[in-house]
Amino acid sequence: xxxxxxxxxxxxxxxxxxxxxxxxxxxxxxxxxxxxxxxxxxxxxxxxxxxxxxxxxxxxxxxxxxxxxxxxxxxxxxxxxxxxxxxxxxxxxxxxxxxxxxxxxxxxxxxxxxxxxxxxxxxxxxxxxxxxxxxxxxxxxxxxxxxxxxxxxxxxxxxxxxxxxxxxxxxxxxxxxxxxxxxxxxxxxxxxxxxxxxxxxxxxxxxxxxxxxxxxxxxxxxxxxxxxxxxxxxxxxxxxxxxxxxxxxxxxxxxxxxxxxxxxxxxxxxxxxxxxxxxxxxxxxxxxxxxxxxxxxxxxxxxxxxxxxxxxxxxxxxxxxxxxxxxxxxxxxxxxxxxxxxxxxxxxxxxxxxxxxxxxxxxxxxxxxxxxxxxxxxxxxxxxxxxxxxxxxxxxxxxxxxxxxxxxxxxxxxxxxxxxxxxxxxxxxxxxxxxxxxxxxxxxxxxxxxxxxxxxxxxxxxxxxxxxxxxxxxxxxxxxxxxxxxxxxxxxxxxxxxxxxxxxxxxxxxxxxxxxxxxxxxxxxxxxxxxxxxxxxxxxxxxxxxxxxxxxxxxxxxxxxxxxxxxxxxxxxxxxxxxxxxxxxxxxxxxxxxxxxxxxxxxxxxxxxxxxxxxxxxxxx
Length: 621
What we know:
Number of helices: 15
Strand order of the largest sheet: 1-2-5-6
Helix content: 40-55%
Order of helices and strands: HHHHHHEEEEHEHHHEEEEEHHEEEEHHH
C-alpha cells in the first residue's frame, strides 16, 4: 500500500490545452513587449548617439573652418618669427667671414686651414723635415691636430649651401693629408728611436723599454736586444701596460710598439653634401613657386609697359587728328591751345614714365631681395631637414684596414699595436643642457636616478663643440643617418618633426617641453608631447603639463592626459585648432611668457633648434 500511495502522490496536476495556450500567449506577449521596449530603447540610444555625433561633427567642422580662415594670418606671423633663423644664419656668416682676419691678427706662424695655399705650404715644408725625434713630432702634432679640428669644424659648422664643391674637396683632402703625414712622422720617429735601442737598454733586463707620454699621444716601445728565450712577460714601469711574449718572438730580432693616440682618425670623415646634392634636397615646389612669382612679375611689368605705350599712341593719334580738322583762324588758335595742353600732358606722361621706370627698378630690386631671402630660408630649412634624415641603407663595406665605426664613437682613443723588425744597432762605445645665446652647457647627468659627475659640467661651448665633447666623453645621445639600423626608433615624418623642433625652439624661452608615452601610439604623421609654461611669480611652482598634438599644419590640445588609460585624439573642451604651436600656446600663455618669446635672442633660438634636431627626442625617446 505504501508504494502505491507514493506513486499516486507524485502525480502532477494536468494542464488543459486552453490553459497551456493562454500561458503561451502570455509568454509571447511578454516577449513581444520586451522586444518592443528593447527596440525603442535601442532607437532612442541610436538617436542620441547620432545627435551627439552630429553636434560633435558640426562643432569640429566649425573649428576647422575657423582654423582655415585664420591660417594665412597665423602662418604669416610664424614666418615673421622664424626670421630669427635667418638672422642667426647671417650672424654665423659674419663670424665665419671674420675668422680669417682674426687668424691673421694672431700672428702665431700657423697656417690658415681655410686657405689652400697656406695648407699646401705647411704640409710640403713638414714633409721636407727629416730626422725628427719622437718628442719633436709630438710637439708638432699639437698644431697638426688643431688644424684638423678646425677643418672638421668648418665642414660641420658651415651649412651645405655655403660650401662650394671645391672647398669641400680641399678641406677633406687637407684632413686626410695631415692625418697620413702625422702617422708617417710617428713611424719615422719610431724608427729613429729604435736605431738607438742599444743605448737605451735597461740595466736589469738588457732590453729596451721606453715610455713617452703626452696629452695627445702615449708611446710604449720594447726592443728585444738580449733574445732570452726564458723572458716571457713584459710590463712597462709605472704603468699597467704589459704583455706576454711567445717563445718564437722571445728569440727573434723584433721590437713591439704600442701607440696610444688620444684622438681618433680611424673613423671615416663626416659626410658632407656637395652643392649639387644639396640642391636636390631643397624642395622643387618652392623653387617652382619662386619662378612662378618671377614670371608673374614679368608679365605684370609687360602689361604695364604695354599700357603706357598704348596711352602714348593715343595722345599722338589725337594730335594728328586735331591738325587735320581746324579750318579757320579761331579753330587754329583753339587748336594751338589744345596742342599746348596736349604737349603739357605728353611731358607729364613722359615724367610719369620715367618715374614708372624708376619704380620698376626699385620693385625689381625688392623682388630680387625677397627671392634671396626666400632662397636662404629654404636653404636653412633644407640644412635642418638634412640633420634628421635617415639613410635608406647601410654604408658600403670598408676596406681591410678600415674599421666600421658607423654610428659609434671611440672612447679613450685608439691603440695601434705593431710588431717591428729591430733595425741594426750601433756598437757600444765608451763615453658637459643649458643654452646661453649661442653657447651650450652640461648642467648635470642623471642615470637611473643617480647623479654622475662629469668634467664637462659648467663649461660653455658652441653646439657642435658641445656635441663632439659629449660624444668623446661617452655620452652619445645624438642619432644620425644610420642610427635606426642599431636602435629601435619611433619613426615620424621628417618634415613634421622638423617643423615641431623649429616651433618648439621659438617657444623655448618661456615654455618647457617633455616626453609623452602617447607619442609612440599616435600616427607617424603626428607628434605628441607635453608642454608647460616655465614658472613665474604669477604661476605655481609646479604648473600642470598639457598634451599637444601637432601634424605640421595643425596644433591641438588633447583632452586626455599622461595618466589616461586609453589613447584619444579628442579635443580639450573650450580649445580650438591652430595652424602653429605658437598660436596654440598663445591662447593659454601669460603676458610675461609672450614677452619673453617675442624678445628672444635669435642665436639662442637657433642653438636650441640645432640641439633638438641633433637629439631628435620625438623619434628616439
